[in-house]
Each structure stands twice: as structure tokens, then as C-alpha cells.
Amino acid sequence: MHFNSAGAMTMPSYKLTYFNMRGRAELPRYIFAYAGIAFEDRRVEWKDWPSIKKTFPLGKLPVLEVNGLPLTQSLAIARFLAKEAGLVGNSRLAEAQADALVDTLNDFTLLIPWREDNPQIKTQKIDMLFQSHAPKLLDHLQWQLGDREWLVGDSETWADLYWHVCFTTFRVLRPGFADHHPALCGLTDRVEAIPNIAKWIQSRPTTEF
Amino acid sequence: MHFNSAGAMTMPSYKLTYFNMRGRAELPRYIFAYAGIAFEDRRVEWKDWPSIKKTFPLGKLPVLEVNGLPLTQSLAIARFLAKEAGLVGNSRLAEAQADALVDTLNDFTLLIPWREDNPQIKTQKIDMLFQSHAPKLLDHLQWQLGDREWLVGDSETWADLYWHVCFTTFRVLRPGFADHHPALCGLTDRVEAIPNIAKWIQSRPTTEF
Ligand SMILES: [Mg+2]
Ligand SMILES: [Mg+2]
């Protein structure tokens, strides 16, 4: 919250710039949706990117502008918003556990060979990733979840939302990847059942990734 | 702080497990040193690692045990400690800026070809990294620093400590890498002049990385 010159509380203005895909902007978008915070969801066309790239720090997206101040790094942006939304965890230990889960999910997404040009090699690399790394990741997440409803503590955090974001993309790559981890599929369902998240998933632009 | 059964405040017990190198444990160690918090600095010998690897979540280090509870992911561990040490930044925006700088420095360290076996190819790859990526990184950091003393706001944060950790390792790889960025070298000097950090650097085990 901020106060304008008349002393009235005003919400900060939020502009999130990324491409027309879920990608690295989708977690911030989920958190905006969850918290019911209005934001400008600016989606740059690929043809326009070369001419505006230099206007962004390090020439990278996403960037979140908060009252015009640019914040970089998707996870730093998401954590900033998760604090506003009350989604970071209920204690310092819980916050650290959520941070670690987010980083662990992110480490896996960084192993996906997005930029491999040869389609056969790309398929092979994705197969290997989902055969060798994914089961360890899923076992770890299922262990962390235990028989609770959410990954950290007794209520949802941004780690649960990030699980859903990642699940959605992993499922595009290898549809049955989580079939042997029913507890995690249950978590997916619980995130989807959050009304504001359900509404966002219904209304967002449809893109493959 | 925690309370024991007699009601007296007790410090949590901290055990940080990693290898005998700076690597991904050095930022948590700097924060412990900065805050004057006692911790067990457990350094696993390579020969012992295969037999104990399975006892750590995802088989990875570092792990910080807080009263026996294991926390994973070096940056989540560091952020947890930075909160205890008052090093995360003085506002939510400052916290997000520090988080983003840490992630940006970390992104660069992830590009270093640590596991390249061929020494000639390794040299080539490191040369390319320091010729193509490093100047952009350093320009960005120098822009973020501006004419202030610290990277975020008016006082030191864990982003400044991480700069020093990274600087120390980058300098081993390419000694003159920051010569054209005197403001950043000034920042290095300021971090080294923090008495508790100076003491840690003096007393820590000497390792190449
Ligand atoms: Mg990591
Ligand atoms: Mg990143």
C-alpha cells in the first residue's frame, strides 16, 4: 500500500512484461491471480523483441515494474508478490522450505533442453531427463508433502503454485510423468480448486508453454 | 531464538554440511561470520561422500541442519540466515532487488563449465564466458551500485557478501576480470573491511574454489 498526496491509500501499479507464453512469468501471474491484484499483463511479440531488448536490464524478461521501478529475475519477482499475497510461509523455517522447493523445481526446469535445435536429440534429452531426474524430483516432493495437503506447513504457499505451473509444462512434454505419484496429482487438483487460480487458468491466453 | 523447557532463550544449533571448499557453502558461512553466529562447519571428505550421499535430501550438499531439521538449496539457506543477520534489505522492494542480484550472480556461476573434463575445451569455454557474459554482468552490477556504497539501499545486504564470494572465485579463474570496473573493486574492498568478514577470510581453510 502507498499513500497518495491526498493521504488516501493507493495500490501500487504493476506492469509485468514477458512474451506470450506461460514460461517464467506464469508463477508471478498465478500469485497476482491468487491475491486478486490487478496488473498489466504485457506480452511482447517476438518481432518487436529485438528493438526493445536493450531497454530491459540485462536484456532479459520477465521484468515487473512496480510504480515504474523495474524488478528482474522471475523468482525474485514471484517472492516479492508472494509476500504481498501471504504465500511465503508462516515462519522463517517454512519460508526457507518453500524457497528451497521453488529452487529445486527451478533447477529441474533449467535442465530442459529448450534450445536444442535437432528434434531427435531434443526428444532423446527430454526422455533421459524424465527417466533419470524426474523420479528423484518427484520422490523428493512427495516425501516433502507427506500426508499433508500442502508442501509446506498447513496452508498453501507459492511453492504449491509453482508445482502447478511446472506440472502444467512437464505434462506437455511427457503427459504421464507423474502417474506414479498420486499424492502430487492430488496437490495439482487442490491448487486448481483454488477459485482465483481456476478463474485464471480458464481465462488466460492459451499457449503451449 | 528458541525457549528451552526452563524458559531460557537458547540459540538454535546450526550444522552446515558441505565439502572442503568455498563453493556453494561460502555465502552461508559469510553470513554466519558476519552475524557472529556459532555453527558447525562440517566438511565431508570426497572419499566419504559416496557412503553418506543417500542420507541427504536429493543426495546434494550443502545442507543446513537447524536443531536437526535439514534445509536444502544454498540460496534458500543463505536467505534464511540473512534474515537472522538483518542482511536481506530494508523494505520489500529492497529485498526483491537483493534477491534478484543474488540470482543474477548465481546464473553466471552456473555457466562456469566446472565439469568439463578436457582442459583445453574448459579453458576455451571459460575464456568465452569471461569475454562475452562477464562484461554485461559487471556493467549491470556497476549500474545497480551507482555511486552508492552498497548494491541495495544504504547498507550492506547479503547481495554484497555474495558479490565478494563470487569475486573471489572469478578472480581465481581470470585474475583481471574486474579491472575495468573500479566501482565494483571498491565494493569488494568494503566487504573485506567488515571486521567479522575479514576475520573469517583470515581464518577459513585455504582452498582453491
Ligand atoms: Mg539452486
Ligand atoms: Mg534465475
Question: What does the model show?
Answer:
- Two copies of one chain form a homodimer.
- The first copy, chain A, is of the alpha+beta class.
- Chain A has two domains: 2-86 and 199-203, Glutaredoxin, CATH 3.40.30.10; 92-193, Up-down Bundle (Glutathione S-transferase Yfyf (Class Pi), Chain A, domain 2).
- In chain A, 52% of the residues lie in helices and 11% in strands.
- Chain A has a four-stranded mixed beta sheet with strand order 4-3-5-6.
- One magnesium ion binds at residues 103, 107 of chain A.
Summarize the structure.
The structure is a homodimer of 209-residue chains. Helices cover 52% and strands 11% of the residues of chain A. Chain A contains eight helices and six strands.
Features:
two-stranded antiparallel ribbon; binds magnesium ion; 209 residues; 11% strand; alpha+beta; four-stranded mixed sheet; homodimer
Strand order of the largest sheet of chain A: 4-3-5-6
Q: Identify every distinct bound molecule in the structure, by name, code or SMILES.
A: magnesium ion
Strand count of chain A = 6
Q: Which range best describes the helical content of chain A: under 10%, 10-25%, 25-40%, 40-55%, 55-70% or over 70%?
A: 40-55%
Oligomeric state as shown: homodimer
Query: Stretches of chain A where pLDDT falls below 50 for ≥5 residues?
Result: none
Helix-strand blueprint:
2 copies of one chain form a homodimer.
Chain A: E1 2-3, E2 9-10, E3 14-19, H1 26-35, E4 40-44, H2 49-52, E5 63-66, E6 69-71, H3 74-85, H4 92-111, H5 119-145, H6 158-173, H7 182-192, H8 195-203
Parallel strand pairs in A: 3-4
Antiparallel strand pairs in A: 1-2, 3-5, 5-6
Helix pairs in contact in A: 1-3, 1-6, 1-8, 4-5, 4-6, 6-7
The complex binds magnesium ion (2 copies).
